[in-house]
């Protein structure tokens, strides 16, 4: 079983891989999976990736040693109980004591995880495309793709708002990012807003490039798991500024895009309908002459082949009314991809006290103290550690059967006063299919501009 675990560091503003949610996803996924895994750590910085790999290897080795010792102790107790039971049977007709149920040992007990590093900069389209090619060359299938990397640029705190929120909305200080000064996005070398590039577009390019590897069976589809945020809000997103280039809070805008994308991809994969790129191509070609309309099939097919390793999908002819009115008699051929057995889920890790946001050390320390105080007071989003924050990601990846996980819900990591983990299931009630389709069309048109160049 191959699990592509996307733990890209993205930019300097990101959480420390050795402490954050990405690192914890690997810990929990390997520990809780019923089967041995190959885990690919997709990281930007080679030195920090190697540091994370070494720490994970040491972690699993120590855990394995503890499991072996625990197993040995249980075996000794079992042998002792069996011996006592035999003696009791020889002297009394009473039944032997019942054996205690033994817990299932993790999969790595007999099969240590195969951990690998692949370097990729999620904010660079060229880097992601090269990464996709390497993965396609090495792996036949992917079970899980975690879209966890992200950035939250910050230029400091709005101290006036900090003071007023202490009295008006103290909970927002440790739950939301409203008090952070978020600078406007700058354009990457690819001409894309840097927050959207790292939080959404790079992941989208990766998903589209690995669809063949993710496409499995209806009962066991490949799973894409997005790490969204509590602060993802429709109010922060504008249709005419879908990249959030003018947004005052581009992070919140990008996370809403991720939620839209997660839901809409499911609808596209399951509905056997053209993706955004095919719809765009059709719309452009419909306005041409009859001769131009005749080139639609070849133009769309070339884009489809680039997504499927050179293998064209079977074309299905569909007569488009507006096109027939344009050319009088010629039909327009649209290539409709076959249904893909892939599902996408969106999650949020609660409030994890990582380095994301680039705040000063003393501010982070103060926030951690406040997190624990609020947890004791009953505020359930205070997960604080990456390990607790990764609960929802791993749940969405491993929950079986697949029918018990609903792509229309956002799964959230929560925790009780005493540290007991809780899972939050929340419907994304503001989702609109038209808005989701618009986002997919824009992302696909942007992706094709790089793939076809």
Automatic annotation (TrEMBL):
Location of the region described as Disordered in the Swiss-Prot/TrEMBL record: 66-110, 297-325
Presence of the UniProt keyword Cell cycle in the record: no
Compositionally biased tracts (Polar residues): 297-311
Basic and acidic residues composition-biased segments: 72-87
Keywords: Lipid biosynthesis, Lipid metabolism, NADP, Oxidoreductase, Steroid biosynthesis
GO molecular function: 3-beta-hydroxysteroid 3-dehydrogenase (NADP+) activity
GO cellular component entries: endoplasmic reticulum membrane; lipid droplet; mitochondrial outer membrane
UniProt cross-references to PANTHER family, sorted A to Z: 3-KETO-STEROID REDUCTASE ERG27, DEHYDROGENASE
Protein name: 3-keto-steroid reductase
């Amino acid at each position: 079983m191959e699990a592509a675990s996307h733990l890209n560091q993205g930019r300097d503003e990101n959480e420390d891989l050795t402490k954050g949610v990405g690192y914890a996803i690997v810990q929990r996924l390997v520990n809780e999976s019923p089967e041995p895994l190959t885990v690919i750590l997709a990281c930007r910085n080679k030195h920090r990736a190697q540091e994370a790999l070494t720490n994970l290897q040491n972690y699993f080795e120590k855990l394995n040693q503890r499991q072996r010792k625990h197993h040995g102790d249980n075996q000794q107790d079992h042998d002792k109980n069996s011996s006592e039971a035999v003696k009791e049977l020889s002297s009394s007709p009473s039944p032997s004591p019942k054996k205690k149920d033994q817990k299932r040992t993790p999969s790595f007990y007999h099969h240590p995880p195969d951990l690998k590093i692949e370097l990729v900069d999620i904010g660079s389209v060229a880097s992601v495309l090269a990464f996709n090619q390497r993965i396609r060359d090495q792996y036949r299938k992917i079970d899980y793709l975690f879209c966890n990397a992200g950035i939250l640029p910050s230029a400091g705190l709005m101290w006036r708002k900090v003071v007023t929120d202490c009295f008006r909305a103290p909970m927002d200080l440790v739950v939301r990012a409203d008090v952070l000064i978020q600078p406007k996005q700058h354009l990457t070398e690819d001409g894309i807003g840097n927050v959207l590039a790292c939080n959404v577009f790079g992941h989208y390019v990766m998903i589209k490039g690995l669809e063949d590897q993710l496409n499995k069976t209806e009962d066991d589809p490949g799973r894409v798991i997005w790490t969204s945020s509590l602060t993802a809000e429709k109010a922060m997103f504008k249709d005419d500024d879908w990249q959030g280039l003018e947004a005052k809070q581009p992070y919140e805008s990008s996370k809403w895009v991720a939620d839209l994308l997660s839901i809409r991809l499911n609808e596209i994969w399951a509905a056997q309908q053209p993706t955004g790129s095919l719809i765009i191509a059709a719309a452009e070609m419909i306005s041409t002459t009859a001769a131009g309309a005749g080139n639609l099939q070849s133009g769309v097919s070339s884009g489809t082949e680039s997504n499927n390793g050179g293998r064209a999908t079977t074309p299905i002819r569909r007569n488009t009314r507006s096109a027939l009115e344009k050319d009088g008699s010629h039909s327009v051929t649209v290539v409709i991809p076959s249904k893909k057995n892939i599902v996408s889920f969106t999650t949020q890790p609660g409030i994890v006290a990582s380095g994301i946001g680039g705040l000063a050390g003393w501010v982070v320390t103060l926030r951690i103290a406040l997190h624990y105080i609020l947890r004791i007071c009953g505020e359930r989003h205070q997960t604080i550690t990456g390990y607790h924050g990764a609960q929802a990601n791993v749940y969405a990846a491993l929950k079986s059967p697949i029918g018990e996980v609903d792509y229309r819900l956002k799964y959230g990591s929560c925790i009780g006063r005493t540290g007991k983990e809780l899972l939050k299931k929340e419907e994304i009630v503001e989702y609109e299919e038209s808005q989701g389709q618009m986002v997919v069309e824009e992302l696909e048109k942007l992706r094709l501009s790089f793939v076809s160049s």
